[in-house]
Design goal:
Helices cover about 65% and strands about 15% of the residues. By secondary structure, the protein is of the alpha+beta class. It folds into 2 domains: about 50 residues; about 110 residues, Roll (Nucleotide Exchange Factor Grpe, Chain A, domain 2). Strand 4 and strand 5 form a beta hairpin. The protein is rod-shaped, with a radius of gyration of 52 Å. Homodimer. Keywords: Chaperone, Coiled coil, Cytoplasm, Stress response.
Length: about 210
């Protein structure tokens, strides 16, 4: 600012009344405040924009983490399903193999038991044969039991349709109805699951005479 302009303003200020001078000072102060307010608003706007950008970045990161978490959960569930199906397949294969093995062995057990029933035990010459058959039968039954294959021999027990197959029924004095009075062929179960029902004869209630 030149000395001439300074002198002019000084001259103009000298010509102003106190009221006009005060009004000019207030106006200059308001202009300064307005400039500071606009500057502060610009600063706040920049900060808010940065905050908005950070919030968007945070939201995107959270979404990515959530997607990855869901993917991990789904992958883990799929692995668990595959393991469970594999375990079931192995268990089914094992049970099928044991059932097939049991079926083969039960035929041998039946043949040995029939041989013992048909052989003449009073004949001394058969003693060694009988002992050999009995030892073979007991050894085979022990082997089956190691594989959880157990016999069902329901002699004198109540008839159970879940484990027994009634081949015939007969009236028997002093025997309660639905009692197994004879076992024609033993049944067998594998791990508590029936693989062959016992073939039995069952008592029945005496018939009522209606002719009287």
């Amino acid at each position: 600012m030149t000395n001439e302009s300074t002198d002019n303003k000084g001259a103009e200020a000298a010509e102003l009344t106190p009221e006009q001078l005060a009004e000019e000072i207030v106006q200059q102060a308001e202009e300064q405040v307005e400039e500071q307010h606009e500057h502060a608003h610009e600063v706040i706007s920049e900060e808010q924009e940065k905050i908005n950008e950070l919030e968007l970045a945070l939201a995107a990161a959270k979404a990515t983490v959530a997607d990855q978490k869901d993917s991990v959960i789904r992958a883990k569930a799929e692995v668990d399903n595959v393991r469970r199906r594999s375990a079931q397949d192995v268990e089914k294969a094992r049970k099928f193999a044991l059932e097939k093995f049991a079926g083969e062995m039960l035929t041998t057990v039946d043949n040995l038991e029939r041989a013992l029933q048909s052989i003449d035990k009073d004949d001394e010459s058969n003693k060694a044969v009988i002992e050999g058959i009995e030892l073979t039968l007991q050894g085979l039954i022990s082997s089956l039991e190691k594989f959880a294959i157990k016999a069902i021999d329901p002699q004198d027990q109540p008839f159970n349709p879940d484990q027994h197959q009634a081949m015939t029924m007969q009236e028997v004095p002093d025997v309660a109805p639905n009692t197994v009075i004879a076992v024609m062929q033993k049944g067998y179960e594998l791990n508590g699951r029936l693989i062959r029902p016992a073939m039995v004869m069952v008592s029945k209630a005496p018939s009522v005479d209606t002719s009287a």
